[in-house]
Amino acid sequence: MPTATEQKIIDAAVRLFASQGYDATSVQEIVKAAEVTKGALYHYFRSKDDLLFEIYRLLITAQSADLDRIIALGLPAADTVREIMRSLVVSTAERVDETSVFFRELHRLGQERMADFRAERRRYHETFLAVVEKGQADGEFSSAVPADTVVLVAVGVVNQLPTWFRPDGQKSPARLADEIADFVLAGLRT
Amino acid sequence: MPTATEQKIIDAAVRLFASQGYDATSVQEIVKAAEVTKGALYHYFRSKDDLLFEIYRLLITAQSADLDRIIALGLPAADTVREIMRSLVVSTAERVDETSVFFRELHRLGQERMADFRAERRRYHETFLAVVEKGQADGEFSSAVPADTVVLVAVGVVNQLPTWFRPDGQKSPARLADEIADFVLAGLRT
After folding, report:
1. Which of A161, B101, B117, B177 is the most exposed place for a label (fewest CB within 10 A)?
2. Per the database entry, where does the chain bind DNA (chains A, B) (predicted)?
């Protein structure tokens, strides 16, 4: 969990990166908007690049912890898929700015950071894939479409959400999550 | 259709934008990589911004024309959805670099360009939506999930494709398109 100061810096950086772009935002502007000293910022983050990565790391860490919690419940495959979709849709909808900034600036991460990012995403993806594969092996899900394609479809709509989701839109994140889960589960029905 | 010179400029710009970023690429570098004169570049494109937009406009224009052709065939709704998914997956997979560069730099487009882009995407989206709605109204598709969510899922996986598709991967674009279409159609089955 980030400290209150760390969170203030992250929130200010997200707002500035989202509204005026990463390049156009200086550390000085972030410090001013967050109402902290430059010393405080450099205490938590070595660089602007570090801050960008942290913005996303917090999101994916929360999603991964949520995934582990869901798996540990040991529910039937369909319920597990529904809970995973709810967790992904709701957490992404709540942090639309963070996610869009991160994906836009992803190519700026250095090799080490990119490797960390890919490893964490891969772990998430493979855990989800294993749920679908087990459901197919147990006959709870249809095997008509390979599990990897099912997961790409299910995760794709979530990763695209920042481009179309509006917090003031007609459907709440919870309702959207249920509709998306319904559709994915309908596709898996035997 | 772009002229041969225009295409050379676009190809060079896409390669440079994809490998080193839009900001870090100068018009001079594009001219050099495309082996054309600066005068030729400015004959076709007013600015780097103009070139960025054109990269994407060519893709979406081709996709829209393909959509009109598919609709004109007057096929049953399921066949129409399959053809649309094939068109989207195959055309996006063939232009992975163009699509990722464009989405990454989208926020740089001026208001007028952004409005054009949104209008063209909306037209595509609404045409696809009408196909699903008609299939639901005619009872050919299940109405369990609202058509707008179905289209967001179907289009989401295509828009995310540039982040995971590898031209040297195990599945061809045509095979991927069929698997994705199978899954979307399974979700719509009555």
Report:
1. B117
2. 26-45
Task: Tell me the one-letter amino acid at B123.
Answer: R
Is the Cβ pair B186, A184 closer than 8 Å? no
Among chain B residues, the shortest Cα distance to A21 is held by B107
Name the closest residue on chain B to residue A104, using Cα atoms. B104
For domain B48-188, the CATH superfamily is Tetracycline Repressor, domain 2 (1.10.357.10)
Q: How far apart are CA A45 and CA B26, in angstroms?
A: 31
Check A186 against B184: CB less than 8 A apart.
no
ipTM for the assembly: 0.87
Q: Residue A54 in contact with residue A98, Cβ under 8 Å?
A: no
| All structural domains of chain B with their residue ranges | 1-45, 48-188
Residue (of B165, B180, B177, B16) closest to B96 by Cα position: B165
Which chain A positions have a beta carbon within 8 Å of B153's beta carbon? Answer: 153, 156-157, 180, 183-184
B99-115 pLDDT per residue, tens: 888 877 877 777 888 88
| DSSP for A30-88, written as a single string | HHHHHT--HHHHHHH-SSHHHHHHHHHHHHHHHHHHHHHHHHHT---HHHHHHHHHHHH
- Residues of A in CB contact (< 8 Å) with B are 21, 23, 104, 107-108, 142, 144-146, 149-150, 152-153, 155-161, 163-164, 176, 179-180, 182-184, 186-189
Whether residue B152 and residue A159 make contact (CB cut-off 8 A), yes or no, is: no
pLDDT tens across the length of chain A (190 residues): 788 999 999 999 989 988 888 888 999 999 999 999 999 999 999 988 888 888 878 888 889 999 999 999 999 999 999 999 999 999 999 888 888 888 778 777 778 888 888 898 899 999 999 999 999 999 999 999 999 999 999 999 999 998 899 989 999 999 999 999 999 999 999 9
Cα B35 to the chain's mean position, in Å?
27
* Residue whose C-alpha is closest to residue B67's, from B2, B152, B127: B127
| CATH (one of 3.40.50.970, 3.40.50.2000, 1.10.10.60, 2.40.50.100) for A1-45 | 1.10.10.60
Q: Are A90 and A8 in contact (CB under 8 A)?
A: no
